[in-house]
Amino acid sequence: MAEYIDRVVDTVLDAYQPLLSAVELYGAKGVGKTETASQRATSVLRLDVAADVERLRADSKILEELPGPVLIDEWSRMPESWDMVRRAVDDGAAPGRFILTGSSTVPKGAVVHSGAGRIVRLRMRPLSLAERKVENACVSLADLLSGSIEIGGQTTVRMADYVHEIVASGFPGIRPQPEGVRRMLLNSYVDDLALREFPEQGYPVRKPQVLKAWLTAYGAATATTTSYNRILEASTAGESQKPNKGTTTTYRDVLAGLWVVDPLEAWLPTLNRLERLAQSPKHFLVDPALTCRLLNLNEKQLLQGSQGNPSARRGEILREGTLLGALFEHLSVLSLRVYAQAAEAKIFHMRTQGGDHEIDMILQSQDGRILPVEVKLAQAVRDEDVRHILWLREKLGSDCLDGMVLSTGEYAYRRKDGIAVVPLALLGP
Fold it and tell me: How far apart are CA 357 and CA 351, in angstroms?
């Protein structure tokens, strides 16, 4: 068996799982939920295995009798298992008793209790850059969120290494494979959405190629706030028969329920000192490698600017700037989402309605203060690259904890204006 990869969410589980009667790890398929939960479980019920489903349906008391902690894997395959756990918690289940994992929300037609106040839910995403151990991450996001800190460090990670990480994916079972096998597995991941995942959610797909075209256009819009109408137009360019809006809304909602689309919501502060902000989310898939597969891009093409690739060209109308820049931002957002969860911070993006000011990420600490973060696909950070952070810092005053630019450079340091410049490889939880 492969050695277990320590996850950032393990630190959260170490602190809280022994105190909670029931915890759910949820997220897209392949992110490592079962493996992480299995490290903590004494007994396992796999509800994607018919024998375990029959066993639980025949006698729900086994939830009380099995040695704990009890892992209920893929609970949504048997939706009533959620209510069984909820009732067990209501009846006084011991702390640390249950761990559930789920790769989807409740299937169409199933009704379960919310579990509020009984089952605590934790999101798992693909491996962050720090979890991949490509470098010794020496700058802590948690420390930055606690106030200004000294910044330093050096990395040997270069542009080609970041491109490799984008293409290799953060799926623990896929990334170690040879390049050709990795491509096949990622292609199958996309194909299975239409052929298996949608039907299992109660939404059979009559034309899988239409769903894949929409998902490809969504991926091409990575790191933008492009409207869903434009995504639909890009997915059906030159076609007279277009899916109706209801169909594409279903695509979006089911993919969100499978945790495959992972939009970054807009920051909407209550502070009156800021002008009105745009409310559209930024588009992201669960992993940038899926976008590369949908657009049929490899490392060489990304480094060369994806020249000559028809799928990549089709998506150019959906964004400004290079696709590689968008994918590097995606890798950054994925990583910071993982680190922010451990720090109990929230993460958003910010854009003024007129587009005069835009910041790639806004992290909000537990006490409501703000850390603005920009992402630059460059080794050197110029004054132009920090102007939006400086604008927001002036607006917020002491409510702005710090400011940071994530780069592809060699060194972590502070600029004269106080903004931290940190290579993405050096940032960790």
Answer: 6
